[in-house]
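Bench log, entry 3. Co-assembly request; chain sequences pasted below exactly as received.
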Amino acid sequence: MLADGPEREDGRTRVVIEAVEPQVDGGRFAVKRIVGDEVEVRADVFADGHDQVAAHVLHRGPGDREWRAVPMRPLGNDRWAATLVMGAEGVHRFAIEGWIDRFATWRSALGKRVEAGQDVAVDLLIGAALIEEAAARAAESADGAVLARAAAALRGADREAAVAAALDSGVEALVGMHAERRFVTRTDRDYPIVVDRERARFSAWYERFPRSSSPQPGRHGTLRDLGRLVPEIARMGFDVLYLPPIHPIGRTHRKGANNAPEAGPGDPGSPWAIGAGEGGHTAIHPELGTMEDFARLVESARAFGLEVALDLALQCSPDHPWVREHPQWFRHRPDGTIQYAENPPKKYQDIYPIDFETEDWRSLWAALRDVVLFWVARGVRIFRVDNPHTKPFAFWEWLIGEVKAAHPDVLFLSEAFTRPKVMYRLAKLGFTQSYTYFTWRTTKAELTQYLTELTQSPVREFFRPNFWPNTPDILPEHLQVGGRPAFVARLVLAATMSSSYGIYGPPFELCVADALPGREEYRDSEKYQIRHWDWNAPGHLRDLIARVNRIRRENPALKATDNLAFVDVDDDRLVAYLKASADGGNVLLVVVSLDPDHRRSGRVRLPLARLGLGPSEPFLVEELLEGDQQIWQGEANLVEIDPRAMPARIFRIARRLRRETDFDYFYM
Amino acid sequence: MLADGPEREDGRTRVVIEAVEPQVDGGRFAVKRIVGDEVEVRADVFADGHDQVAAHVLHRGPGDREWRAVPMRPLGNDRWAATLVMGAEGVHRFAIEGWIDRFATWRSALGKRVEAGQDVAVDLLIGAALIEEAAARAAESADGAVLARAAAALRGADREAAVAAALDSGVEALVGMHAERRFVTRTDRDYPIVVDRERARFSAWYERFPRSSSPQPGRHGTLRDLGRLVPEIARMGFDVLYLPPIHPIGRTHRKGANNAPEAGPGDPGSPWAIGAGEGGHTAIHPELGTMEDFARLVESARAFGLEVALDLALQCSPDHPWVREHPQWFRHRPDGTIQYAENPPKKYQDIYPIDFETEDWRSLWAALRDVVLFWVARGVRIFRVDNPHTKPFAFWEWLIGEVKAAHPDVLFLSEAFTRPKVMYRLAKLGFTQSYTYFTWRTTKAELTQYLTELTQSPVREFFRPNFWPNTPDILPEHLQVGGRPAFVARLVLAATMSSSYGIYGPPFELCVADALPGREEYRDSEKYQIRHWDWNAPGHLRDLIARVNRIRRENPALKATDNLAFVDVDDDRLVAYLKASADGGNVLLVVVSLDPDHRRSGRVRLPLARLGLGPSEPFLVEELLEGDQQIWQGEANLVEIDPRAMPARIFRIARRLRRETDFDYFYM
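Structure output for the full assembly:
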């Protein structure tokens, strides 16, 4: 009934490795980091009995042929750690190996025996044999001779010299270098880390419709017009200039202004109804300009520190060339028509969704990848992906993997405003950044709950939030009613809570609050018509945005998201949080009023000990939005906010007033 | 550089399955349940887009040839669940499959279109085709004709009849039964559940040295003597009678009384120094009796509802037959001696540990398994495993798996008083129950922290605690100084916090507090000498133990451990917790005083809403240790404890006084 004995490779493998960090879903997906990050790999490593174990992390960066071993150090309670430095962009992998350290076990026991005054004659013989084994393995190098001499000392007649040689730390180090690792346990799998350039984690996005960029009202804007605005956009401090789709727009069932089912003769249609006689996803809408104009825009934006990001909306207008060339990529109905987009009972007749259940899915996937590669070849390295949650997860994992394998600098932003598990799955499978629920999280409780989830739960390893106060699809209620103070508060929240954020402009800078009644939809939305914007209208936020973005660049604490820690403030419309750089050298306290109408004040309670401050030590705080300085003291300090003047404060806990001279300087 | 297209099996598999529960380490280890348990399997199941998904759990019990499908029901937020009933002992497995439910998706959209008054002519044709496909698959059964008629109705001229047929729930159910499941996603692995008999979770252990069971002082006790005590032990209400090793005891380096390095002529030695000329792990110490005596003990214990559990201590005295027959199973030193057990600088010369790193490990493992099977063949179904943490993890996983594959009713208790991760690993790999740190957790904070970890964290799925107030190795300090109140308090804590517990008797019943100075070691320990106990000495706890064990049997709330919930009581030496049966029909409140010296009183705060009680509703509580009844009302009720009288209260929240007649009855 039972076998004669165990059927397994080697039952003498005694070390166990558990609870590996960082990882996502047991290593199924990658954790995300940026170039230069230090990653502390941790795991429980232990064996039966009292023998000492040793372990190392094996690390292989993109392009590395060999694994590099980094020794792990014990943290106590059977936990071990090693720090890896993320050098190159791309997929890094690590694994962990653990084994019984026979020499260390022997040496530790010897030390205790010597201390207890026991006879160690036989123990020295055991140790001599271990050292001789290491000497044999080191025979090629100078270490071999050193080890052989040590072994001889252990076998020698001089007991004191023998014990000294046995406990010599240099000998231990040499034996370790030439250790025989028997019965090594290795993690069942390698764990991936996707390493991106810094923009993946720290980015300020500006979304703008090129067709509304004309200096003359009434004229269709062009890529050249937009190019002329680049210096202004750069002056506001943005890194990414994101354009809604720039492809030819379909004519069949084109929508009119305010989403009217029938377009009038002059209506330009929705840019998301992609494809017409002039071409599809690899063509440029003729009224916007040419491929050369696009190249020039990319070039001039780059000169101003801005990257052009394109919209990747995988859907077609009825006039898209693919409808004719690849009819099998669309779903056909029994009456011979092609299924248009629907969310019953709503109908979107100007758009055909792609049928990812087509028998021809392999060619379809390749064609969609080639669209991305087409624009990559034209200098685009960032894609904002429209509604990724309506295309299969497996497709995205493959597409992003394929593109990044060849171009690890390409970044993908997931515009998935959908159920939480779907959003997180998209992030896990490779999206670099993700839109979030921030847009609708407005109360202190909501913001606290959501930011705690994003920054403290396991999602922090794979979900990089990008906070948008508004988008062309969403003019949220609080911006419709809150006026300028609400726009400023949401700007500061987005730009300081999250290291990536974006606005849809110019409606944001101009505090446009004009919505269709009872909806979150802009009236006269640019999605369906061309608008002309007066950037210099009174009350615009351009200078303030420039200030906020400069504060972001100058303060390392704002270049990460998961370093956020809420602090208590005794007013439930004031929200306060600390952000600190990894080295602790840059600490900001942000206080934002969620009340756009009334003055608010509250005592902010700081964790002084965590900040390295004594209970009654005075310290200097510098407010960065308006530039004033204050001396604070003790745990609780009063913050007063008049939203009409400035609904937010960004304090830099600038310096500690440890020496009298600081006071002198301050009061000078 | 890039392939022409995706290299994968089918990119149209759109459903994702995540976050499967219950599981241990992603399915690497089994969760533990008992026969009759209902297991709710839960997972996130979702797809891209708006299509409806469906899922089922596949379940295969031990011996089942086929998987049985149990449909999952949606819980909201993309979470799904199905309930499996654990029928037979052994290893059950489950997997999850999910797919797009094309018909439900179509039907739901149709309903919305009909409601919006849209033309659904083409939609009815699509649905008719889906129903016809199901009809074709059901052609063999009567369902085929029903479905064919429904499809005909959808294609018919009568629009109202067509819509009615399309939305008919009977049609939906039939289509579901004959659904085509395309592009099914299955979990990457199966998830194991080890199902044991109830004793695995609910057990009261009594440990006793047979050699101290003689009715005459000075005579070596025998298995027959112990057999005569069985009725007394059973009367105390225990389920398991656990015997320290009963094998021949070595003579070489035998230890004397109080662990003296040299035994005197009459010293019996430690039963854990296993093996002598008379035999090893499959022999019985001649002074205890014969194999027939053992068989009779097992038999008579069973007649009184007691199972005999043996000690499995995998080590040898220098006189064990294996030392001669299998010298390669031991470690040899350069001077030709065999390595004895050590924890430097301590030496245990009466014991040779087994060298699990032997080249001959396969034969060794088989021999150790055969020891277990030898005793299984003699009616033993429970093993208390001595120091499992000093033998390789892989060995235990194999051994327990082998034994339970043939004998799923065999239970293993892990005596691993060691580091937490080692203890948990042993539990994961198969030990049925585990010793715990309870023995040293004495303050309210310690008990709260530890019980919360055991009952609320993931360890609850695999670690079944067995609480011991004392063992032959441990007479903890609080029992040395606390007197009878401390023994009673620890008894009630062990027996009501954990559904499995045990005592080492008779020292426990007799409140023996005599330790070696400054140590937790019993003076004149039975480990090294024979003791004679007067069970009827004044102050014995036998009647109280009987009462506690009867309360355990009569109250289902005490048959589980992870149903414990602490409640607030405003005295920091009083600890209070609720235990409720799964159906809520049996609710106990236990209050124990940790102060053996002084009266204590405190207000216990009950979660009335959770108990189904109104804020000012009176309710009857019945104290089970002393038998009095009280009417309580409101959230906070006073409990007073005089430790000299009774340091614990076990209240049954017996009935709600909803009707006047209850009051009448109570006040009668």
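The two ends of chain B are 92 Å apart (CA to CA). Chain B touches chain A through 69 residues (CB under 8 Å).
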